[in-house]
Each structure stands twice: as structure tokens, then as C-alpha cells.
Design goal:
By secondary structure, this protein is mostly helical. Helices cover 76% and strands 0% of the residues. It has a single domain, classed as MFS general substrate transporter like domains (Growth Hormone, Chain: A, Up-down Bundle). Belongs to the major facilitator superfamily. Sugar transporter (TC 2.A.1.1) family. Belongs to the major facilitator superfamily. Phosphate:H(+) symporter (TC 2.A.1.9) family.
Length: 345
């Protein structure tokens, strides 16, 4: 919302040069708590593939898959081909897609904190249902609740980070979300590596521990301030000014405050925002916004991360070796993201 490069969106380049403030501890703590939401998404990516490769889990819910797995030395082809197992893994993303569409107007109308808290509560419920599931219906219901939590969190948290961060550090602090995601993947891989030995109930611990970062995010969300941008968008200019002064550590926030007000008024004046996206002047940004994540996904890295233990087992790895290999993959991912974060900072 601020910065000279955003002048066409209602931000004054001259005023951007007058921004004052510092990185307060209030901003750092708020961003760390919010970025934990990224670890929720990462944890689920890493945990699901490991759980679906555990014998105790397969015996409980997918006995046919378990029998196919026992005959892997005879036929290692499509031993995980099961509609119920596919429903377990894919239901989260279907729910996340729908929840993202619902979360957008809620985030705009009720604020970023509301969506963060809703996402955290949904994820806690989902993790609890998964850990205590006694049948496939409860298991999939838990996955759907996890998807709702991810949909709300992934929609609101990056926006919250962007609006809380000072302009010159916005990119770096917002990258905390991605860093937390990769750390969540690695943590999940390591947990699976340990709980696989706790037979036959280790999978319950793996799924249940997903509630830990969600609980931290939910409790933190209760105490987090709303962003100045959100308050001003909803008509609370004085409250927005107070919060902006608090997070910037100075009372001289007139320049940034005015830019936020101008940008908010400009955004509210647009009657058909989604229709405007397709206007000729916005097409370069639209194309980049669509094709960059599309090409990233088409590399196949998401599938590899999600199904890593299953893929390794299908290649002939043992259960223990497949989880160990997945942990190594997660470690490389987390270290690479961390190195990039440090170098960019």
C-alpha cells in the first residue's frame, strides 16, 4: 500500500520519501506470530505423505492398500491406487480452494485478525478430528476443516504481514511466510521419522501435533493488533492512526497515513474490481500473477513434497528409508529458503 513504485495505485511518491519510523519489537512479534501460519501449511504438506505410508494408518483405514503394500516385492505398481486414499489427500485442497474464496470478503469486511483466528480454530478442529478419527468419514471431515483453516490463513496472513511491515522491509518480512512453510515441511518429515516407530498409533501423534502451531497462531491472533490499512478501509481512521503510530514507534506518521487513506479511497471507488483486472492496462500484471505460480507448480515440486514418502516406497525404499529420504528433501528445501532469505535481507 505504500512506496514510490505504487504511485498509480493512489500512493504519492513525494510522501513516500517522508516516511518515518523504525522496526519496533511490536512489529517483529506480530509478524513472527502471523508467519507461524505458514508452518501450518508446510506441516500438512510434509505430514500427510508420511502418514499415508505408515502401516498402522493403512491397516486402520485402507486395508486394501496395506495388502497391496505387503506384496510390493511381487508387484510394486500402483499399490497406493485407492479412491478413499485419494479423497483423504485431496479433500484438504478442495476445501482450501473454496475457503479462500469465502475468506476474501470476510478478510475485507471484518479484518485480517478475524480471518487469522478463524483459520487457526478451523485447523485445531481438523487436527483434533484427524488424531482421534475412528472411521474414514471423520478422517475426511478433519481434512476438510484443515483445508478451511489453510484457505483462511493463506489468504489473510501474507496480507497481514505486508500491511504491518515497514515499506523498506516489506518483502523480507513477508518472505517469513514462505520460510515458515519450508520449516513446517521439514518439521513434519522429522516427526514422521520418529512417530513411524510408535506402532500402531504413531500416525495419530503426527496428525495431532498439527494443532500446536495452529494453537499458537490462534492465541497470538487474539492479541495481535488489526492492521492500520484494514481499520482505515472499514472507516476507523483514528484507530488506524493510533495503531500506525504504535507499530512505527513514532507519532509522525502523517505521510504514510495519508497514503493509506488515499489508496483505501481509491480501492473503494472501484465498483467492479474483478472486471478491472481484465482491462488492457492490467494485463501484464494479470499474466504474471497467473503464470508464475502455474509454472512453479508444473515443475512437480508440490507433488514431490506431498507424496515424497509414498514415491520413495514405490521406488522400492523401505518404510524407514523412505521417511529418512523425505526428511533429507525437506532439510534441503528449508536450508535453501533460509539461505535465500538471509542473502536477500
Amino acid at each position: 500500500m505504500a512506496g514510490g513504485s505504487l504511485a498509480p495505485a493512489g500512493v504519492s511518491k513525494e510522501r513516500a520519501e517522508q516516511y518515518q519510523g523504525k522496526v519496533t519489537s511490536y512489529v517483529i512479534i506480530s509478524c513472527i506470530i502471523a508467519a507461524i501460519g505458514g508452518s501450518i501449511f508446510g506441516y500438512d504438506i510434509g505430514i500427510s505423505g508420511g502418514v499415508t505410508s505408515m502401516d498402522g494408518f493403512l491397516q486402520k483405514f485402507f486395508f486394501t492398500v496395506y495388502k497391496n503394500k505387503l506384496h510390493a516385492h511381487e508387484n510394486n505398481y500402483c499399490k497406493y491406487n485407492n479412491q478413499g486414499l485419494s479423497a483423504f489427500t485431496s479433500s484438504l485442497y478442495l476445501a482450501g480452494l473454496v475457503a479462500s474464496l469465502v475468506a476474501s470478503p470476510i478478510t475485507r469486511k471484518y479484518g485480517r485478525r478475524a480471518s487469522i483466528i478463524c483459520g487457526g480454530i478451523s485447523f485445531i478442529i481438523g487436527a483434533t478430528l484427524n488424531a482421534s478419527a475412528v472411521n474414514l468419514a471423520l478422517l475426511i471431515l478433519g481434512r476438510l476443516m484443515l483445508g478451511v483453516g489453510i484457505g483462511f490463513g493463506n489468504q489473510a496472513i501474507p496480507l497481514y504481514l505486508s500491511e504491518m511491515a515497514p515499506t523498506h522491509l516489506r518483502g523480507g518480512l513477508n518472505m517469513m511466510f514462505q520460510l515458515a512453510t519450508t520449516l513446517g515441511i521439514f518439521t513434519a518429515n522429522m516427526i514422521n521419522f520418529g512417530t513411524e516407530k510408535l506402532r500402531p498409533w504413531g500416525w495419530r501423534l503426527s496428525l495431532g501435533l498439527a494443532a500446536a502451531p495452529a494453537l499458537l497462531m490462534t492465541v497470538g491472533g487474539i492479541f495481535l493488533p488489526e492492521t492500520p490499512n484494514s481499520l482505515i478501509e472499514r472507516g476507523s481512521k483514528e484507530k488506524g492512526k493510533e495503531v500506525l503510530q504504535k507499530i512505527r514507534g513514532t507519532e509522525n506518521v502523517h505521510a504514510e497515513l495519508q497514503d493509506i487513506i488515499d489508496a483505501s479511497e481509491l480501492a473503494n471507488s472501484i465498483k467492479h474490481p474483478f472486471r478491472n483486472i481484465f482491462e488492457r492496462r492490467n494485463r501484464p500484471q494479470l499474466v504474471m500473477a497467473i503464470f508464475m505460480p502455474t509454472f512453479q507448480i508444473l515443475t512437480g515440486i508440490n507433488s514431490i513434497l506431498f507424496y515424497a514418502p509414498v514415491l520413495f516406497q514405490s521406488m522400492g525404499f523401505g518404510g524407514h528409508a523412505s521417511l529418512y529420504s523425505s526428511a533429507l528433501t525437506g532439510a534441503v528445501l528449508a536450508s535453501s529458503t533460509g539461505s535465500f532469505y538471509c542473502n536477500s535481507g
